[in-house]
Amino acid sequence: MAIVRHLYFVPWTLTALIACSTAPSANDEASDTQHTSSGTDPSETGESTVPTTTVGMTGETGETTGEPPMLDTYQFAGGCFSLRSGDRYLAAGDPTSFAFAADKAGAARFFMKAADLGTYLFYDQDGGYLVSDDGPLVRQTELESDVTRIDDTYVSGAEWTLETSVVDWSQYQLRNRRNDRLLGADALADEGVPVTFEPAEGCTPHPELTLDATGQITRTMFDDGDLYGIVDTHSHIHSNYAFGGGGLFHGGAYHRLGVAHALPDCSISHGDMGRKDFFGYIFDASGNEEADLASLLPDLVAKQLGEDNHATAGWPDFTEWPDGPRRSTHQTQYWLWLQRAYLAGLRLVVQHATTNAIICDFMIGEGIQKSRYGCDDMTAVDRIIDETYAMERYIDAQSGGPGLGWFRVVHTPAEAREVIAGGKLAVILGIETSNLFDCKLTPRDGDPTCDEAYVEAQLDHYYDLGVRAIFPVHKYDNKFSPGDGDRAFIELGNFANSGHWSNFTLDCPDPQVGGFDSGNVNFGGLNMPRDVYDSPAPVDNSKFPTAPLTTTGMYLGQITEPALEGAYCQNATLTALGEHMIRQMMARGMIIEVDHLPQWSYVRAYEMLQEVGYPPIGSHGRNNGGVLYELGGVSAGGFGICRGDAPGATVQGFKDKIQFIMDNGGYPAEGFGFDLNGFAGARGPRFGDGVCPTPQTDPVTYPFSSFAGDVEFTPPRVGNREIDFNTEGLAHIGLLPELIEDARRDAVDEADLEPLFRSAEGYIRMWELAEARAAELGR
């Protein structure tokens, strides 16, 4: 097992506040701080500099009259403490139990790992947790969780929430999150014992990944006053909560119980050697691109692949994943990896909740994988929104209290500006899913009536939840528009979702505007174009969720017919309800994501946007021949991979794009749209057999400094594995520093990359323009 270092920042100075009864606690007001990414803090040495919390807001008398004070419950994150009640200390009586039965010399020494704000794991010097599942205080070296059980209702007995003691207001009581009962002398009790946390030495830090960076953010603005920072316009941090949450996509960006439960061995859901990971097998760029339905049918019936797919080891070995370019069903945005990217200049992320009910229904309905909740799109969307706020709290908890973390969900352009100017990462909430608001093209029992009033109510509901960016449609036909028209297995999914045959035509916009619905039709036998887009479905696929193979197998003849060759596109455009939704999004100043609109819908949407001068976002890189920039919109781009004979080859395309943006009246900046955790792959390596047409030189070496010069990066590790960007590419988001460094070493001038670091400014300008147009339009 690798030696782990705890590299998140803990504001130790806040703890001094508790020593004075008249000083405000961290609960009352969270002050801003600088952000450090490394260096030595007490958690690394197992020592604590936190003063003993024997004096509370009532002084030393232990009074309990009037209203109880709010003691600081946040200050202990990452600290080393022993727990005392009266004159007895909590200790392990044997390898499997704890009790308040020892003197100071025999006290257990606990590393306090924050699970949430004011909630902790108590991890002793020998690697055991303080746990209570049903009463007794037990010591466990391994924990179960909702992940290991694939049970959304499971709550660990290892989580303890700190409260002011009702017995003595100058001390604490510990409430068990699983049982909602209090820590007693040797078991849970209705009335808990008062507890004092005494600083200790010699703790064992809780297992965690390393950050592999040192320094602190100093640059937040350009000299002209524009914000300094990169935008990732298209991200999916929490895809593990999509598809029923059962592990079709494996690994979390965080977990309350730590890295071992966020990134465990994926055999839990993917099976031995990944043989149940059908979805990854189809999507991974690892030699399986030719997989087709006929070849997979025997394996689907057997409920596992007939050959090994991938090694499954997660924490601490990570044998084959994370691997952004080759392993699509594994987490690439763990919170510390995201923090490393933030330290390299990432300052704005658009976090889209995404899922796919048909893929979920298939895997669950065939018994290949389990789920934690229903497959409906909006069930996953709601959960992902909740988890994004929970992750914000989690990072706050590691940082010492509310508002102190570097990850901030924002709801207005002004908030985004404030967060980025303060040296933190602003996060915008979005939705990218097919059955938006449960508005399927062909409703099923229990689905809502999707009319104008319902759509307006849903927009208001999700706006109130903080959502600002929305795709009107994703892969499949819905009440707003035909799906994006993506080919191959998406054609089958659309058939299962809607009960309609494919609807592709050669009668396309002239000139064509690109998009997913361009080119050949893979399943030619499914293509039966219709005149009326929302006519009654000719096929009843309502039994698909419970019998996927049986339902679709009835149409095996059509499915196995040959492909159709030609410049096909979707044979329909935005519906009246779709146009209404776009107008209502404009009225609310929301960010309209247009890149999954098929060609005819795309053309109509731009007509609507041009009528009022409203800016769109093309986070998959489309710009409608520059019209997007004329409207004040933003798109996404990136760098080339291979270097040429002359310097600057990897950044030349980026420079040309910036010039194109300027020629069309846009702000000279463009960020990324990585789409990580979105089954879109990731930037591959520059070195390796067959990667580039010419031999490559000048690999990234260490250490190197950020573009701003305020952070130094060392070789990235994931547990026991060292990752080499030169030969592996963007294995996870934390390799963004390397991607920038590689381009920087090829650039002719540092100024070539400046538009990248202005991209957060560019995105916020688009958002500000959207809100200004909304104010002009009214409601």
Automatic annotation (TrEMBL):
Q: Which residues form the signal peptide?
A: 1-26
Compositional bias of type Polar residues: which residue ranges? 33-48
Question: What UniProt keywords apply to this chain's record, in alphabetical order?
Answer: Signal
**Lineage, broadest ranks:** Bacteria, Pseudomonadati, Myxococcota, Polyangia, Nannocystales
Does the keyword section mention Signal? yes
Q: List the protein's name.
A: Membrane dipeptidase (Peptidase family M19)
Give positions of region: Disordered: 26-70
Keyword Iron-sulfur attached: no
Q: Where is the composition biased (Low complexity)?
A: 49-70
Coiled-coil residue spans: none
